[in-house]
Design brief:
Length: 113
């Protein structure tokens, strides 16, 4: 059997009607949100051509703090998120729903059209 046909234990249990305990489901949701934020910060930083150190200087943080955010190792506070958005010259958009979370930075336009 090829590896692509294997199912994880979790997938098999869910297909058999197993439901996760509420605390496990909540932890999984929090991890997904943290990972979505980490990906959004990384994508915007690299789109600007910034290193973690350069972003840290712009935001008044340490490079280690930026690394922890991009590594999903920390959940930033709202004031810290505001500093990140300003340092990334963008607006931070977070859309939360029961089963999904979308996090994105929308670049500020500087065109005087």
């Amino acid at each position: 059997m090829s590896h692509s046909r294997w199912k994880t234990l979790r997938e098999r249990k869910l297909s058999e009607g197993f439901t996760e305990p509420a605390d496990v489901a909540e932890a999984r949701r929090e991890i997904r949100l943290s990972m979505a934020l980490a990906q959004a910060v990384y994508e915007r930083r690299t789109a600007l051509g910034l290193t973690q150190t350069e972003l840290a200087v712009r935001a008044g943080l340490t490079q280690a703090k930026i690394s922890r955010i991009e590594g999903s190792d920390t959940v930033p506070t709202l004031p810290l998120l505001a500093r990140l958005a300003q340092a990334l010259d963008a607006s931070l958009n977070i859309a939360l729903d029961n089963d999904s979370a979308e996090v994105s930075f929308i670049a500020h336009t500087t065109d005087a059209a």
